[in-house]
Each structure stands twice: as structure tokens, then as C-alpha cells.
Amino acid sequence: MQAYQQEREQALAKTALALMSEVGVAPTPDNFELFYTYASGSNPAMGEIIDRMISARRPFTSAVLDDLRTRCLSSARTTQALDNASSQVVATLNAILGKLDAAGRDAGDYGRALSQASGELESEQSPADLRRFVDTLVAATKTMEARTHALEDELQRSSQQVNALKTQLEDVRKESLTDSLTAVANRKAFDAELLAATADAHANGETVALMMLDIDHFKKFNDTWGHQTGDQVLRLVAGCMAENVKGRDTVARFGGEEFAVILRRTTLDNATVLADQIRAYVQSKKLVKKSTGDILGTITVSIGVAQLGPDDTPTSLIQRADACLYAAKNGGRNRVVNEAEPGELQIDAA
Fold this sequence. Notes:
Mean pLDDT: 79
Number of domains: 3
Structural class: alpha+beta
CATH superfamily of the largest domain: Reverse transcriptase/Diguanylate cyclase domain
């Protein structure tokens, strides 16, 4: 059985590597995990997506591969981690209940011993009988004390296990809401936060602005320097954004090379100033190839900014901010456009 499993894994690995070579995907560990999972057939949803892409001869760009990992592998890992943690919680709670049940039986035995002793005290006893009685009572009390101390120790250990599991579950929750490459919020977290920010703003009359950012000529970085350099660009831009926002704001990877920032209690003008600050900060950075130390050039970004209106939904706000982003790109890139600037913005209502 073990030999068969090993042969199967080797066959799947060869299939995955051959397919990666065929579709022009770099043989990195992350990419291998994707195509090994595809070859094994263990993730039907991902299999359908890759099948369609291969049939349509669509390129497996860095953005596409990142999106597949986020949508198909991260959720599977999160589900498995939650299942494992839940199983451990159930096992720990069952162990605690077992210990409490045993403690209840011990207390019942001790109570019966005391009742028996009380009955014996009511009758006349010789000194020798009293001595045996006291010895028996002392022994029962010591036994009960020992069991009580043991229970306290066990419950203390169980409490520590439960706290560790709580930490583990919190880590899993954070991981499920974090983009693994850039360490900012992922699309799932962005959608939830924008929905909450929109609801709060409509209820409390607060201002909310949305910034949509796209890395200029990102494909050129990937085609010229490879996907690892492209990943470095994504991490650098995400870091620049995170360094310039406040704790109440949310920086998220929206998809591919596009990012978003939800700005609570921020007006359109202030959001525009912040957007230009981020744009200039990114441009001031130099992209350095880690292996050689060579400077590969500068990075620029285009940014669109919109402010939540009284009738806005999350979708309509995204559409307007996205229209501003495309206006910035069409206007020459490396610039910020907000919805109050003159000129028509193309907003796709679909």
C-alpha cells in the first residue's frame, strides 16, 4: 500500500511538472502545489478553472496564479485548519467533562464515607474503634485532597490547551483574511470591511472614501524580470500603502496588481491628498534585484478616488473609484484622479 502511494505521488509530480512546462509556468514551490493539486483531482473547482484556461490557451500570469492560490488553495487550507482545531477543541472539552464526572464520583464516595462516619459516631465506640474510625476518616480525606489537587492540575492544563486552541483559531481567522503574498487584507476581508464601512456611514452620517490603485506596466516587470521580481513589486507597493494609512483604514489586495484602500471618516479631498502621497512614496522607491543588487528601475502607480454618497452601495462606490482609476491610466499613468475632477468617467454598470 505504501509503495503504491509513493508511486502515485511520483506520477502526479511528473504530470504536474510536465503540465507546468507545457503552459509556461515557472517551477516554483507555490506553482508546483497548484498543479500537483490539479493533477491529483482533489480540488474540482480549481480543476475546472485550469481546464478552461488550457482549452482557451489563456496565459497563466502571476496575477492569475496568485488568484488561483487565493480562491482555491487558501480556503481549503483554512477549512482543514478549522476542522483540526475544532476536533482538538471537542477532544479537550470531552476530556474536561470526563475529569469532572470522575470528580463527581469521588465527591460522592467521600460524602458516603462521611455519612457512614456520622452514623458510627452516634453509637458507643471503644477507644480502639474510635482510633480506627479516625484513621479511616483521615485516609478518606487525604485521598479526596489528592484527587482534588490532581483535578486542579488537569483543569489548569486543559485551560492552557483551550487558550492555545483559541490562539490557533484566531491565527487561522487572520490567515483566511490576509493575502499571503503581500500580507495586507485579501479580497474577502475587503468585501466584508467595505460592507461594514458603508453600513456604518449610512447609519452615522460618517464620510467614507475608497481608493483604487493599479501598478503601472506591471506585466512588463513580469515579462522582463520574471514572476519573482513581480512578486517583489507587489510586496513593495503593499508596504508603501500600509505605511501611509491609519489604523482605522484598510489596505487590501483587490486582485492581481490592483489594490484598494477603505478610508473611514475621510473626505474626498483628504483621500486625494493621501493618494498622491502614496503615489509619490512608491515612485521614490528603487526596485533592486536581490540576487545581484542591480537597480531595475522605479515603480509608478495610478490611483482613482471616490467618496461614498447617500445612495451608494459598495458596488457603486467601487465602480466610481474604478472609473477614476482608469481615467488616471488613460490620462498618462502615475497620477491620481478623483470623481470631482472635470471630464467624463466611464462607469460600467454591469
